[in-house]
Amino acid sequence: MHRQLGKLAAALLLAALPAAILAQAAAPPAGKRIAISIDDLPLDSRKPLDMAATQALNQQLLRALQDEKAKAIGFVNEDKLLRPGGIDAGVAVLQAWLDAGMELGNHNFGHLGLGQASLAQVQDAVVKGEAITRWLAARNQAPLRYYRHPYNQTGRNEDERRAFEEFLQARGYTVAPFTIEHDDYLYACVYEQLQDTAQRRERDTVVEEYLAHLRESVAVFETMSSELFGRQIPQVLLLHANRLNAETLPRTLAALRGLGYRFVPLEDALRDEAYALPAAASGRFGPSWLARWARSKGVKLSVYGQPDPGGLTAQLAGKLCQ
Ligand SMILES: [Zn+2]
């Protein structure tokens, strides 16, 4: 009896609720997962690296990740550590990542891509780019197991891709793919050049455009996942360590959470069977792995990658970021 009354009361209550609230309540937790990867540590900047500022910006990134309990991976360019008087500070940045429970990966020495440099040069850059990180990882009982290709160039052709992957595997590396990007380097470049107090309004506009672009981009990559797999695979977001992301990561992560995402380590995302699919050599361009899988599977998608940035950011990028 009580149970029936309870049901009736619940039905009446539901009937009385505004449609919008019902829709919200009815939307199941989507169970979507995303791994956060941040490239170009210790910092990607057009300006000469100020190590104190670099440390502070990394602290902001790490705080945002920890607040969301997101276990991210940071990919290191060790050439950026080799600054006279700056090595200790750079090592401290990497140590801070490990202390915060994050993982570090190799992004090679000098950010050499397989589009410009030879296979032998890039292989050298892998070895040269792991000296400090491997030492640090070992001291912290942390793994060093992922390699992120600069420019996401995986090879000029299949032979080169295969040869490089065999080399990476022999050194204990797994390639770190990504599936979602949203031109953060472009927004970051504009943002970094709008640091005067008088540019506050433009800077705020760039941030709003950046977050809107994130939402639009995520929607496109979700469509690609649906069309390819009939479901939402765990995504891997590609970000860069820069001032813009340091100052907006709390909002970026909140936006992703609002879209139904739960943050998972890269290792968990890569366990999905999607990541075992072949991804053809990238050539010069380094698109999302969703586009690569589509090509390998011979599937035609309705969309390929994020829309072009527009608005004030695109206008200013033409002037400031050539
Ligand atoms: Zn990079």
Automatic annotation (TrEMBL):
It comes from the Bacteria. SUPFAM superfamilies: Glycoside hydrolase/deacetylase. Keywords: Hydrolase, Metal-binding, Signal. Residues 29-153 form the NodB homology domain. Residues 1-25 form the signal peptide. Pfam families: Polysacc_deac_1. The keyword Metal-binding applies. InterPro entries: Glyco_hydro/deAcase_b/a-brl (IPR011330), NODB_dom (IPR002509), Polysacc_deacetylase_ArnD (IPR050248). PANTHER family: CHITIN DEACETYLASE 1-RELATED, GLYCOSYL TRANSFERASE-RELATED. This is Polysaccharide deacetylase family protein. It comes from Tahibacter harae. The lineage of its organism: Bacteria, Pseudomonadati, Pseudomonadota, Gammaproteobacteria, Lysobacterales.
